[in-house]
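Supplementary Methods, section 5.1.

A reviewer requested that the exact input to the structure prediction be made available. We therefore reproduce it here, unchanged from the version used in the analyses.
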Amino acid sequence: MPKVKSLETLKNKEFRNLLTGRVFMILAFRMLSTLLGWWVFTLTKDPFSIGLIGLSEVIPAVASAFYAGYIIDMNEKKRLLLTCCFAYLVLIGCLFVPSYLHNYQKISGYHTAYFIYGIVFFTGIARAFIGPLIPTMIPKIVNKESLPNAITLNQATFLTSSVSGHALGGFSIASIGITKTLLVIVLLICASTCFFFFLRKQPSENIKSKNKVLSSIREGLSYIYKTKEILGALCLDMFAVLFGGAVAMIVVYAQDILMVGALKYGLLNAAADIGSACIIITLSIVPLRKNQGKILIAAVAGFGLCIIGFGLSKVYWLSFLFLVLSGMLDGISVVIRGTIVQLKTPDRIRGRVLSVNSIFVMSSNEMGQFESGLFARIFGTVKSVVIGGSLTVCIALATGIMNKKLRNMEY
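The structure derived from this sequence is encoded token-by-token as follows.
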């Protein structure tokens, strides 16, 4: 495959519009995630309440994912993307209600948290669509030679905006408060929608298909099961994220263990994404040429070790460093997995395959958040993080020993 430079890919105006719109969207989503974690824990002072945020989102996201993949494959994608943006605007707008009532009507913290969980539930449905939707649009915008580079650039911009969103979220909470931070989030989604509006339409390749919903979903699942490289990479990443979800407990570490305020909490929340952004930008310049399977397994094991280190640390800068390192290793696995999925998936079933990918990867973040909250209640915060990191290391080692095809995988 000929080498394609990043700048050549960015000359594509359509691709630039998609990336820019996604930057504003991820900024908004990461600010919202930082805000909700701080807000709910401040209201309840219960680590398990943070886990319930993840559970509230993952249930509808997983339940809707298969159908979302079918809808993405069978419909025009630009219109669907704009519809998802509008849905997010409405749902986030609803959060102004508890931010106002709790301050002025003295509603209890737990009642406010329950309202937030309800809104998060509906954002989970929207997420089931928008998570796989943008990646399915990239192969129609860039040519095949530019696709690996476009995927890496997509991940790099995702993580850069994710870092900025977490940090900006912490800064906004500390400086302007919850209500005005929500307003900033709404404005960012509006900006994202404007860039998406200028994209060209992407009609479905399955417009004449007479396949029924269940048979179409089954086709996507069957393809993943038969393609062992995709299945192995997704399973490995899912369990790593599920058990290594220390990020969910960062707000507890910030307030109760490291004793820092909202601004340093926002920076700590961004630490893993800082590491991921650095390594993914590096990989866009110096891509991995061989032994991707072995590198993937080693990266996941190293990720687990970093989570253990973070769990045991009681010093802010050391905790920050462990999270940065964990993000660098996670970034390597993100690039390898994302490239495998895109290169090995035909256009006609891309939406269904990426929807399953969102169940394995995106939704495992929320399940990991719930698992972390549950373990924190049972074992305590520190032990729950250390146990999760240890399980991640064990799973990576077991996968390396048992899955020869994944271990020897190259692309």
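Residues 88 and 102 are 22 Å apart (CA to CA). These observations are discussed further in the main text.
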